[in-house]
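Q&A log
Question type: sequence-to-structure
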Amino acid sequence: MDDVVPSFESARVDPPDERGGTIALHWFVIIGVLGYLGWAIWRVPHDSVGPAVLFFILAAIVVDLIPVPAWGGMQLSLSFPILLGVALVFPPAIAGMIALLGSADPRELRREVSLQKALWNRAQMALSIVLGSAVFNAVADPHADWVPLVLGATCATLVAYAVNTIAVAASASLERRMPIRRVLVKMHGTAPFEFLLSYLGLGLFGVAIAKFYLVEGVWSVAVFLAPLVFARQMYFRSRALAEQLSERNELLAEQAGRLEHLLEKEHATVDELRELNRMKGEFVAVVSHELRTPVTALIGYAKTLRQPEFADDPLMRHEFLERMERQGDRLLRLVENLLTTSKLESDQLTVSVGRVLFEDLVREVVEGLAGEADRVFLDVPTDLPMLHTDRQLLGRVVSNVLDNALKYSPDGSPVELGARASGDDLTFWVRDHGIGITPEQEHRIFERFYQVDSSTTRKFRGAGLGLSMVHDLLGHLGGTIEVQTEPGTGSTFTIRLPVKIEAGRSAG
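Response status: OK
Response body:
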């Protein structure tokens, strides 16, 4: 197993600077391994270091240096079967020397790793082979039968795997300043036993190499080189292909997620357009009715007044003219609401700031209610501060809030309008004793075209524009509106306005 950039870091990203702990670990292992090998090999008889040792070194180098497709992550060195076979047939010191010299890395030739990193990679591999060889020699003999031989080789493989993995993980942990457990998880991904099983499989291949070497001689090992080289190529090509497929799957999953999100938005847009179309259809029907009612009344009263018996009766004529005036005012308010809503929709509403005496504005609005004016009870002090706001827009706010309260209250029931000054704000409220608003409806009453009673048999007139327009107008006047309500008891709408707003303020 080569010590390379762990699988959680892309090979395209420059590795961070090595820290003191990493350097100390590397040189501790390097010096320790080199010192041990130098001391141990000095004590080994020189005639034990023959052509077979050189052959195994060259064999490991050949397998490791043949180019393969680039693939970032923990890499399983396919020279490992050769090195494990060496660990089974040679003493630990000789096996460690072969591992040290034979653990080649193509990056060394391209000068992509420093001398320290190259020595570290070789030293930790040599250390794993030395300890694996020592364990094998302690539990088995290379000339033993297959069962004890495989058992000893399995123990040696597990020891080599553990030493190599811990060394690589400790180095990455110090270099990345990550817990070693997290590094191990990142190294092995979601299949922690896959690498170990691959190691054990290659270890069994190493048993066959050792057996052939002991029975047939060093040249019989050459027949294993071609399969190893081929396996190495296929291994890395399959991993590269798997990585490409994984990236493409992630890309496809991301694109599928985006398409699903766009489809959901499209469905939401379609539903919204359908709802808007339904609401506008209802609005056209309601407005047509609201317009037709006063127009029909006006025409009816006008035709009636043309009759001689009514034209010559002053009292009847006065009553009819009053009713015509009331229907005309109702028609005018509806048309003005429609025009104001149109300006709000097209962002063409302009605020014209002037001096406004609130109590005078309120009395003017109440007088415009004609026959329903006597239902409004005022609690407006005469010492309120002079407002600097748009008189016409504020008048529409007061008129529509009052009209809403009167519309949803029983005939003859009172509606209260009060006001108080509070610092730089003016607060006024309109309280009715009508049908109230349910909690489910409360958050929708300021929506355009929405009406508390929207049934086909509703008894309350209106087009569902009043409160929506009040909310929008207050946004232009710098004010807010709140409602406290109880179904069956009534509602109180509270409006807060700044005493002064900026002159020339425009919609938006």
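Response note: The chain has a mean pLDDT of 79.
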